[in-house]
Amino acid sequence: MTDIPTITLNNGVDMPQLGFGVFLVPADEVVEPVRSALDAGYRLIDTATLYGNEEGVGRAIVESGIPRDEIFVTTKVWNSDQGYDRTLQAFDHSLKLLGLDVVDLYLIHWPTPARDLYVDTWRALERIYADGRARAIGVSNFTVAHLDRVIGEGTVVPAVNQIELHPGLPQDELRAAHARHGIATEAWSPIGRAQGLLDRREVAAIADAHDRSAAQVVLRWHIQLGNVVIPKSVRPERIRENIDVFDFELTTDEMAVLSALDGPGRVGPDPETMNRA
Ligand SMILES: NC(=O)c1ccc[n+]([C@@H]2O[C@H](COP(=O)([O-])OP(=O)(O)OC[C@H]3O[C@@H](n4cnc5c(N)ncnc54)[C@H](OP(=O)(O)O)[C@@H]3O)[C@@H](O)[C@H]2O)c1
User: How many Cβ atoms from other residues are within 10 Å of residue 252's Cβ?
Assistant: First the structure.
């Protein structure tokens, strides 16, 4: 079983550098892939209220028999639950569905700037953190301006910003801002949802050179950059493939080639205009 390195967040909490995402895995099908991931050695599970599968994630964790404190659980407050009071209620509901007393990381899923509630929402996360019900709190899809605002108006610096990031969307400006503030960069759609990126000839050439798959090479690029990654798959062989990235090393030139890929750009929404409730 693969041993996954951890990174230390700005509050001293350790977070596995590679985890398992469950977006678009239906509620009644989520237990099996999460069990496969835990069996393969994953110790970070990334869910969200939006995904509608928190209950199944909680069940898979219990059924695995792995001690609770060995699994890092992330969930997120959905856009329609933003605002101080609603976020506190949404958090209670997530804990109930997950069957947990504490989550390891609670995130604001999107800033939804047109609604302008993310600072109030952040205050609710600060309260949850102060009460010891989330070991760390962070944000997702925040731009530099959104980060500056919560840091300026809040009392806790987010531990994590979970953003779309992959070769073709390297997010250099945000990564530099994260480094300035001590915020960990967590990459969603780390293999670009396998849409185009994995077929690029530059990726294929590096994969051939290491006798690895295109997905493994892309995930390795993230690891060497210091990103946390949460690839999703419902197929046991891919679940095992995606974690098997800790016994080879890309060269400086290979890293540069992947960092400079001219596309694909975003496979998901733009945070500046994503205001869906
Ligand atoms: N915060 C946010 O706003 C946000 C947004 C999107 C995602 N996320 C999180 O990030 C996680 C990952 O992102 P994602 O699911 O969008 O994209 P992803 O992990 O980049 O890609 C998942 C897609 O790639 C396929 N795949 C997985 N491993 C593969 C491999 N080794 N070779 C070829 N294809 C492979 C999967 O198909 P199969 O399942 O059929 O294998 C699935 O279609 C999500 O599950 C979620 O937890 C967060």
Answer: 8
